[in-house]
């Protein structure tokens, strides 16, 4: 920046040679400003209001023309009035739920509000928080822009981007119209100003350095040449937003967006050049343990059989923790009973490799637990996370593939729908499919998993909640050919140890408090009113 200041000053001294004015120029070049800038969340502007009015005008005028609704298509359109309906009971037969999965429904709003001491107050609070969220997450780039037919204006439809408080030339501006005595165009912005990087003879420009600029010329070719030098300077700092620009003549209007924001800073991992995947350099295994040190030991022993130098991160919230030592092991002690997702957060936060593999503490690595396959698909596709399969002692293998969707539901909240299944097979990986949720044996890009995080309020039972939070953020796959074994859970009641009994008590004992937390998370945090699932 100092170089820029000196450059401005130097040029000014050469041209003018007056020191007093150079100070004014220095002030103009400096980025700071003593005046305040409104950075409150905004959901509209005069241009936004004009846009909505134009769209209404474009789509109106044909109301008298008859039409016929195609029910099979129209029923798939969003109605903003979703409901959660369970399947009707028909008949019961052995294994009917496996053969014909039954959809159940849960009214989250009723379950949560009925137990809340101030249901109306919490509804108002949720509405306020949601309104604030909408304002914070709003971007003018989300506004619908409809291009009018036969518009003589040429302009960029996408791909224009400027760094905060920086200047760019707007590409692609032009005008195609019949010859007339005077050709005039107008440019209007909200978050920035216009200028020209060069001047063209026979073109008049007014409003340089302002939010509204007018260009006119008796010669269309000269005007179009001048439009090639129009610049936009962002003047309201925001790390990620957009400005809607109005480009118009007397009779026509067009709108386009200029994205304003910093570029994405890459997070690269220096794993060294290898012809084959160096799993120890690429992957860290993360797990959480509670009252199952015997299972944890079996897990570690099985890992070391196939990956002797891979790092294992262990989050431990036992009341009386025991030392877990060995090469490439990191053991982190938590407060007693801190919980399942809190442990996931801690373990994942300590991972420094490109990928993190999550496993339960009672899993067992086998010859089929090929982490190379998981790394390969993550390296060669846009997937952020890939799940494997878990084989029970009975031989049954589960992938827990789910599709998750959210249906808009208006002021009362949205509807969450969870179904078994997948979206499509991944080309080049016939055993892998694209899904929205997988089983709790998965490998993910560390930075992406950390960005989503795990809600530490969910202490005893939680899994799908992570994937619900990840919806729209993570691209997820599932591969059935990467298999890990699950230690046997088949125990006769009289053969259970005290530790196993204590674990079962913590893990499986029903708790109204746990149910209330889940209902609150879904109702308030995620703003759902109900859910359906198989």
Automatic annotation (TrEMBL):
GO terms for biological process: ganglioside biosynthetic process. One of its GO terms (cellular component) is Golgi membrane. Homodimer; disulfide-linked. SUPFAM superfamilies: Nucleotide-diphospho-sugar transferases. InterPro entries: Glyco_trans_2-like, GM2_synthase, Nucleotide-diphossugar_trans. Gene3D superfamilies: Spore Coat Polysaccharide Biosynthesis Protein SpsA, Chain A. The keyword Repeat does not apply. This is Beta-1,4 N-acetylgalactosaminyltransferase. Residues 285-440 form the Glycosyltransferase 2-like domain. Keywords: Disulfide bond, Glycosyltransferase, Golgi apparatus, Membrane, Signal-anchor, Transferase, Transmembrane, Transmembrane helix. It is found in: Golgi apparatus membrane. GO terms for molecular function: acetylgalactosaminyltransferase activity. It is a single-pass type II membrane protein. The keyword Transmembrane helix applies. Belongs to the glycosyltransferase 2 family. Its main location: Golgi.
